[in-house]
Amino acid sequence: MPLPAEFLEYPRRAYGMDQDRYDWQPADRRAPLHLKSGAKAMAFITIPLEFFPLDPPAKPFKHPGAMVTPYPDLRHYTTRDYGNRVGVYRLLRELGAAGVKATFAVNASVAERYAPLIETIRTAGHEIAAHGISTAHIHHAGLSEDEERALVTQTRAVLPEAITWLSPARNQSFRTPDLVREAGFTICLDWESDQRPLDMRTAHGPLTCLPNHYELSDFLMLSTRSQSEEEWADQILEAAAQTVAEHGARGAQCFGFTLTPYITGLPFRIEAVARALTGLAAMEGLEVATASEVSAAFAETSS
To answer: Cα–Cα distance between 19 and 138 in angstroms, integer?
Structure first.
C-alpha cells in the first residue's frame, strides 16, 4: 500500500536548512576567532538537577530519564532521587578539587524543593541555569503559545537571576527560542549546531546558542551505549585535545558536555569523573568555564 501524499508534504522544506534561526556557515569558510585570554578553546560542563514525578505524563513523550516500569516505579524514582541527595555532592567535591566551575541546569521544582542544595551550588561559585519546571513539563509544538509561555514564566519566577536556559529533555517547539528570550534568557543549551556560539534570531533579540554535545553525555555513553567509565573519560579528554589542536586552522572553538548526578555521581564512576576534570583543568590551551562565561568570552573575540 503506497504512502498517502500528505505524508511527504513538509511546509518548512526549502533550499538550505528547514529553520531560519541562524545562517548556514561551513567551518572552512569563516575567519578564525581569537580569545582575549589567549586560550585556544573553551569547555563548559552542564549538570542537570531534575525533578522526576513518580507518575509522569506520556504526552508528547516521556522524558528519557523518566520512570520505566508500571506505577509506582519506585526503583527508578529512588535512583533519580539519589542523584539529587548524594551523587551531586560527589560531583561538587570533584569540581572543587579540580578548580572547575560548572553550569547547574535546575528545574524550578528542584529549586523550590531543595533550597540547601541550590545554596551550596551558589556558594561554590557555580552558575545556576533554568531547566524548565520539571521533567514532566516538556516544551513541544502541541502546546499553545500561552501554554508554553506559562511554563517559561513559572520557571523564571523561581529562578529570576538565571540568564542561561536548557529545556526539559532538550526539546523545543518552534516558538521556544522566542519565549525564553522574551523572558530575559540570553543563552540556550538545547542546540549543538557548531563548535562556536551561534546567535540565534528571535522576535526579541539574539539568543546565544552554545554547543552542548549530547554525544559526550554521560547518560548516552554510560547508560544507553554501555561504554566503560574509562572509555567515556578518554573521549571527553580526546574531544578537548582535538578542539585545542584545531586552533591553528579554525581559531577558538568551544564545546560542552553533561554530567548527570544519578549517572556519574555513583561511587564506582567518580574516579573517572575526577580524571576527566583534572585532565581538562590541566590541559594547555583549554579554559574550562561556565556557560555564561563562555558566551561572554566569545562575545569579545577578534578575528
So the answer is: 21
User: What value does the mean pLDDT take over residues 196-219?
Assistant: 97
Report helix, strand or coil for 103: strand
Q: Is the pLDDT of residue 1 over 70?
A: no
Distance from C-alpha of 174 to C-alpha of 156, rounded to nearest angstrom = 20
Pairing relationship of beta strands 164-165 and 207-209 according to DSSP bridges:
unpaired
* DSSP code of residue 174: T
Q: Identify the helix (H) or strand (E) that includes residue 123.
A: helix 115-123
Mean pLDDT of 77-94: 98
Q: Which residues make beta-bridge pairs with 41?
A: 253, 286
Give just the sign of the alpha carbon dihedral 79, 219, 179, 297: positive
- Nearest in space to 220 (alpha carbons), one of 277, 258, 246, 261: 258
Are the beta carbons of 148 and 173 closer than 8 angstroms? yes
Rg (the chain; Cα; Å): 19
Q: What is the DSSP letter of 130?
A: E
The per-residue pLDDT for range 125-176, each reduced to its tens digit, is 999 999 999 999 999 999 999 999 999 999 999 999 999 999 999 999 999 9
Q: Backbone phi, then psi, for 198, in 5-degree steps?
A: -115, 130
pTM: predicted TM-score of the whole model, two decimal places = 0.95
d(CA 145, CA 275): 45
Whole-number mean pLDDT of the chain?
96
| Torsion angles phi and psi, residue 138, rounded to 5 | -90, 135
